[in-house]
Amino acid sequence: MAASWRVSTDEGVNLSPDELVGLLAAHHGRLIDNWTGLTDEQWSCPSRNARWTVHETVRHVADAMEATAAGVADRESRFSVDGFDARTTPIGWLAGSAGESPSRTIERFAAAAETTRDLTGRRLAAADASIRAMVYGPVHWSVGVVHAFWDSWVHERDVMLPLGLPANSTVDEARLAGMYGLLMATLPARMMEQPFTVEVRLAGPDRVVAAAHDRGRCAGWETDATAADLAGEVGRVVDALCGRGDPVAEVLPGSPALLSAFGAHMASEPG
User: Which is nearest to 132 in space by CA: 86, 65, 72?
Assistant: First the structure.
């Protein structure tokens, strides 16, 4: 059992099979329960992404989970990540489920999520170190699983908050979403081939998390530090770093020089 969690693009996640699969099971089960309880009117409401309804957002989450299940099974998916652009690719994916009922969307998600959990547990137990293509390049296969979790954690908030419903999360989910969200925020440094390191205290899981890029490798990990460069509430931080909610400078007050390198890495567009 990993006392301090870590995820990196080259080595993957250090959670045990039971830790990661248990975390995913709690998250997936809550999503299904939340969606099953929505009314027809709520399915048609706008999500936090103004261009998508609640149902379109959930369809995207199901699409992404199908792509993840295919990835951990080492098979081709109808949802290709080749040339992935977060602003446009997910919109193209939605064409395949046009006219789909909410119940069918939930069924698709549930089946793909079960496959993902099963194969993730097996591959972690086997210490599989395979590299696979992902939306931002080749990474350890388990990073794709964590990415899909982070994506659905954010989209859960996209659905629940505008409906005036609680966007609940276990502490472990918040730990992993916060850590991976900070890793994602190092991608601009990777694109510019610049080294970058930051430590952030995340309220919620109450952890200090470091995130860094160095020579093409991005990583996020929990530290024993008592002080950090920046501090903020995990939900607001993850939201801000992917272009949602309040500005990064508001949720992570700190030095302008640091924040200029640690800005939002995604526009508030689909995906």
Answer: 72
